[in-house]
Amino acid sequence: MPPSSAPAVPPPVAGRGAFILLAVAQATLIFTIALIMVPLPRIAREFALGSAGVLTLQVAYGLPFSGLLLFGGRLADRFGGRRMFRAGLGLLGVASAGAALAPGFETLAAMRVAQGAGGALAAPAALALLRALFPAPAGFARAMAVWGGVSVLGAVAGFVSSGVLTHWLSWRWMFLIPIAVALLGTFALPRLLPADVAGAPAQRPGLDPLGAASAALGIALTSFGLIASIAQGWHTPATYVPLAAGMLALAAFARFERRQRDPLLPPGFLRDPCRAAGLFGVFLAAAASVLVEFVLLLYLQQALGWTPLATALAFLPFAVVLLIANHLAPACIARLGAAGGASAGFVVAAAGLALLAGIGAGTTYWGGLLPGMLLLAIGISLVFCGGAVLAMTHAAPHQAGLAGGVMNTAMELGPTVGLALLMAIAALPADSVAGYAWAFGSAAAIFLSAAAATARLARRAADGRHACHSFHAS
């Protein structure tokens, strides 16, 4: 259907309800990653875990989630978004119930892995459904601007709410939220999204099992090695063995894809400048969000002696500003364009990171940390919104699941690759707090460089030299 004849928005009732449901599901998938961070010390004490067990719980959701996202996108493109979305939510709900009732460490770890697999099915399928709901470029761009902000809000909500629930009730209660969302999605979606809207894609790609397996292994093993480096350094087998194995698997993936008639990741898919800029923006925004949570979690509890509950509540203003910024960001993206809005977000986020780089042994929360946190919240909201529009709106309808899988993979690699590299910088000074300052300062410099790059892209789009998508594209 040509853009001029496609509706810019979905039907008023069912379409809006379906969008809200999909957005809540996306936020919940990211929420479920973050909910383990604050209660992890209490879980470790309850199950008498050593460092290996703690690391396993840290990565048990994220590794299958990030590793299987590309394959999840392929399944959505082949079998339909609604079917895979319901399957993913169903698996997430069952696994969350198992995690809430887990009698021991092994069961909890296995249920976290199953949660991640369910999330990998649901996340790209949700984006494929979103593409079907908003067939016109303008409507889809608006939806993606909201979508990007919803994702980062989910991460912060998981961090804050898990700390509150763990303090007042038990860490087991935090799994009720993904259970509730899974039930809501499983039963409400057929009424909100008719089968013909989520029907079979125009082209049915092959499954590419070799590509799927090598990509999943490569991403998961590399991510595990990078996460292990944060706690154990770069010179231990727990770090370099999975890193080496992951690199080999990714090399095998690249080789398999060159030989495939219908590859999992088509050649040239990442070469589009707008898509590449959007994916890099999503990657950096996710990395910065987790960096501030991880570093300030350590600083507030270890340097200032705050309780886990107080630490979680310290991020409440960050979450509130994110919520407000997410509401306003689509209008900013509409005015500045996706690349221009992302560039502005990079500048604001860099200012926040620069303020956080002033952290020292005597830095207080209200005067020293909070201003930088709030600026960062505004900045990464703009970056996420603009990046999501750039990453998704050039994808063909039959590749909506693939584009969603790639974007969510970038979102997942940010906290692993980005955090590992920045924490390696933080380990250079002997003093840990000075290391935190180095990490924030390095992140600020990276964000300023990204701002310059996306500003050039925005100028090219304004001059008509590249059609980076805006709300006004036809």
TrEMBL record:
**Carries keyword Transmembrane helix?**
yes
Where does the Major facilitator superfamily (MFS) profile domain lie?
Answer: 18-462
Where does the UniProt annotation locate this protein? Answer: Cell membrane
| Entry-linked Gene3D superfamilies | MFS general substrate transporter like domains, Multidrug resistance protein D
Reading the lineage from the top rank, the first entry is Bacteria
InterPro entries reported for this sequence: MFS, MFS_dom, MFS_trans_sf
Key words of the record: Cell membrane, Membrane, Transmembrane, Transmembrane helix, Transport
Name it.
Answer: MFS transporter
Q: Which organism is it from?
A: Bordetella genomosp. 2
